[in-house]
Amino acid sequence: MPSFSYTAHPARVVFGTGTFDQVRAEAERLGHHRVLVLADPHVGDVADRVEKVLGPLAAARFDGAAMHTPVDVTERALEVLRQAQADCVVAVGGGSTTGLAKALAARTGVDQVILPTTYAGSEVTPVLGETENGVKTTRSSPDILPETVIYDVELSRRLPVPLTVTSAVNAMAHAVEALYSPDANPVVDGMALEAIGRLARGLRRLAADPADLDTRSDLLHGAWLAGMCLGVAGMGLHHKLCHTLGGSFDLPHSPAHTVVLPHVMAYNAAAAPEAMRRIADVLGAADAPTAVFDLIVECGGPTALRRFGMREVDLVRAADLAVATPYPNPAALTHEGILGLLRHAWHGDRPDPAAVDLAAPLSIHRLTEQVVATFTGAADTRLRDLLSDLVRRLHGFAVDNALTQAEWARGVDFLTRTGQISTPTRQEVVLLSDTLGLSSVVDVLTNSRTPDTTPSAVLGPFYVEGPPALAQDTDVSQGLPGIPLYVDVTVTDTDDRPVAGAVVDIWQSNDDGFYDVQLPDLDGPVLRGRFRTDPHGRLRFWSILPSEYPIPTDGPVGQMLAATGRHPYRAPHLHFLISAEGYQQLITQLFVRGGSYIDSDAVFGVKDDLVVDFVPRTGPAPDGRKRDGGWRELRYAFRIAQQSTFSPISPMTTPATALKEAP
Ligand code: NAD
């Protein structure tokens, strides 16, 4: 038979439907006749109804309750309370409004009647968290505990579904942590398991009818019991982490609870097997953490911290804060373990019941930091920062995915072969970067031009330095088969003034989809060249219509595409690299509208503004040349930015010399 102690918190609870009608009677029951009604701006209409029921007792109203109970808001409300000579507060709203009522009670001893509209549970705890100058402090006292709570199922019916889901999981977290708290006892356990069961049942039925009274009754009843658990049992890692995420990283309260809960449960699972077994039983599942995660997914709740704008680099600081001071928790609190937990929560992973025990003492974090420390002496601080972050992410990748020795060896072999197959004309490493979308990411970061300039696109692996200098009107196809293409483009600045003498490198594939550098037998270079714009910024030349083509698939990148079921095709396009003294270099591609693979380009290079008409024509060409059959015409105006209006991070180097060489 277990021995235990249990301290009940003396509060009166009225539970039911339409119970807010009893608010006047409850205030009078406490012996009060001048009431200050508290609310936040989103529940003002409910507060109006409550005020109406209070009738002459309603002495004043304050609608400014805010998240995390800021002290300056409390001081303004205090002034209203004093002016109205109110002897009681009636709070209508979520945990934030309850927090304001508690803050007023802590300062004046005023009695509180709370009408909760969320499932936060604060109304039955003697705890108050307040923020001042960005710092949140928490205190507990019997004076803070509200005297009366009126739970009205009708009021909670209008809580929007997304808020309902996160608020109910927030409540579930109180019950989960109570089960493995050092303060746990049979009374707390009973309330906690009943709370989890009711909350889960309510959540599962919510989508079918969010306004169903039985569903809402289960959720509100569960939230009350969970709040009682929070009031009597000390909380562990989950509440500590959520406090940190809300306080230091400004993450929204109940969504943060929702994302983190399954991962803290997974972290604690091995150290609190009995609590997890009982939770799993109540949920009718084999594994408690995954059951909670699946329930959240089923209800459409949030699962990833990154969705709230939290940066991955901040996880280390969050883990630092979580282990800064000791507190009771079933599993040992290790920095690397908590960092792993946070990484899973950040990515939105489903907890894996068979995964390595994150709470087990590991030395990986120390190892990572040892490696990072070796870069501190780097003279180039940018190099230091890039390498430090790369190492942290590589180690994190290995930990998060429990990378095996065989997988690591396969990756090393892949990268080795990618390097070995590369030559000055076969750039497999660039191709890898292209097919992983990295080249496009860097392109966007480096060349995010003003909306007035032509969008950029990746350079690709087939550019060759120093292409042959050609005169205007040259046919770069040199008689290769294909549909003739007449190109007539201009280069202007952002005010549409022509840029004369601009160096324009062009290159493209042949009709079979090969670049000259891929065909060793070809007497090249062909389908590439370097032109200069005329005094009107204009350039005209002949070529052939580009066709779609596969990127090389006979190397490691091709194997990666095959292994992931991806096709290797690039949408048909013509490359341009435009340079002019005093202007920002433009690397781009023009894509054939209506061409194949426009929507699934293998290197993620297509941008809407670069998809243009290659217009079908018949008859004589503009330069008077006779063309048998049809030909295509490409007209386009490139707009490039002056150097003063756009500073590149890392410009290509080619054209400085090219400017001198071009005819
Ligand atoms: P909240 O009170 O800030 O409400 C969240 C949002 O929901 C707000 O925008 C609110 O206006 C809106 N809302 C509330 N009821 C609504 C309804 N019926 N319909 C439409 N919108 C509605 O947030 P919360 O999650 O209820 O409470 C979180 C706060 O409570 C945090 O500051 C937390 O620290 C505190 N809290 C304290 C304790 C404690 O014991 N001291 C316990 C739990 C929570």
Account of the protein in words:
It is a single chain. This protein has 663 residues and is an alpha/beta fold. The protein has 3 domains: 12-156, Rossmann fold, CATH 3.40.50; 161-358, Up-down Bundle (Dehydroquinate synthase-like, alpha domain), CATH 1.20.1090.10; 434-661, Aromatic compound dioxygenase (Protocatechuate 3,4-Dioxygenase, subunit A, Sandwich), CATH 2.60.130. It has 21 helices and 19 strands. A hairpin with a 2-residue loop joins strand 6 and strand 7. It starts with 11 loop residues before the first strand and ends with a helix. The model is unreliable at 645-663 (pLDDT under 50). Bound molecules: nicotinamide-adenine-dinucleotide. Nicotinamide-adenine-dinucleotide is lined by residues 40, 42-43, 67-68, 93-97, 99, 117-118, 120-122, 125, 127-129, 158-160, 163, 167, 170, 230, 253-254. Residues 40, 42-43, 67-68, 93-97, 99, 117-118, 120-122, 125, 127-129, 158-160, 163, 167, 170, 230, 253-254 line the site of nicotinamide-adenine-dinucleotide (NAD).
